Amino acid sequence: MVCRTSWLLIAGAGLLLAASPARAQDMQDPMPNPQAMQMQVQRIAQQRPREAEAAARAFLHVISAQRGQGPVESSLALLEQLKTYDLEAYWQEVAQLTVQFDVVQSLVRRDSVRAGLVTQMFGLEAMARTLQRAYRSANETQRDGIRGQLEKVIGAHFDFENQLRLFEIKDIERRLGEVRAETQRRLDKRAEFIKFAVDDIIRDAIRPR
Fold first, then answer.
1. How far apart are CA 15 and CA 20, in angstroms?
2. Spatial separation of the C-alpha atoms in residues 115 and 163, rounded to whole Å
3. CB atoms < 10 A from the CB of 11, how many?
4. How far is CA 105 from CA 86, 98, 198, in A?
5. What stretches of 48-139 show up as alpha helix (H) in DSSP?
6. 3, exposed or middle or buried, with CB in 10 Å at 0-12, 13-18, 19+?
7. Residue 185 to residues 25, 190, 199: CA-CA distances in angstroms?
8. Of 30 and 153, the one with more pLDDT
């Protein structure tokens, strides 16, 4: 079963990645929605393909290259530890990382800036899942510290999410400007458009059949 934190985070990211109808048309390939991502996670976690392990480790390398993320050695070590004491949780983590890596690879071909922000978000989600697992076995004093760490991680995640939303606003404003300009052009050439349309209708009416 996917933990609540993982689901909330993947849902939040998925809502940002799912292209709006206008953006989907621009990109010609809408990003997967949260439900589709979750189904992929569950399928990989159940089938446990070996190539998913390699993809998850490769994504940890990509995440570690981002500013503010921890060294890849620490992330890989934590993943290996998880494999030794909770195999089910290990495969859930591998599946999550694999699906997220696929999302980033699809996005980077279209928008490297957004791909970088999404990679940062997914890295923070991996941190949050690690802290959540640590919280379960921690004592009350340790839990206070872990909660503080989670607040920082989720705060950073929120900030990256907001940056993505600002990009979306700029895209919407640009498209709106283009639509307004085209509408005004058509209004300015109203008589010309009407004449062309009427000429086409008449030519079609007298065309030999």
1. 10
2. 12
3. 14
4. 29, 11, 50
5. 50-64, 72-85, 87-108, 112-137
6. middle
7. 23, 8, 20
8. 153
Q: How confident is the model over 146-153, as a mean pLDDT?
A: 95
CA torsion 90-95-96-101 (nearest 10°) is 130
Please give the DSSP secondary-structure letter assigned to residue 49: -
Q: What is the pLDDT of residues 71-119, one digit of tens each?
A: 888 899 999 999 999 999 999 999 999 999 999 999 988 889 999 999 9
Q: What is the pLDDT averaged over residues 181-193?
A: 95
**What are residue 72's phi and psi, to 5 degrees?**
-65, -30
As a whole number of Å, the end-to-end CA separation of the chain is: 68
170 φ, ψ (degrees, to nearest 5): -65, -40
The arithmetic mean of pLDDT across residues 61-71, rounded, is 83
Q: What is the pTM of this model?
A: 0.75
Query: Given this model, what pLDDT does residue 32 score?
Result: 63
* Residue whose tokens read 């206070």: 144
State both tokens at 79: 């993943």
- Whole-angstrom distance, CA of residue 27 vs CA of residue 111: 10
**Long-range residue pairs from 141-147, CB within 8 A, at least 24 positions apart, any chain:** none
What is the rounded (10 degree) CA torsion for 60, 64, 67, 71? 140
131 pLDDT more than 70: yes
What are the structure tokens assigned to 67, written together?
Answer: 């500013």
> Are 24 and 62 in contact, with CB atoms under 8 Å apart?
no
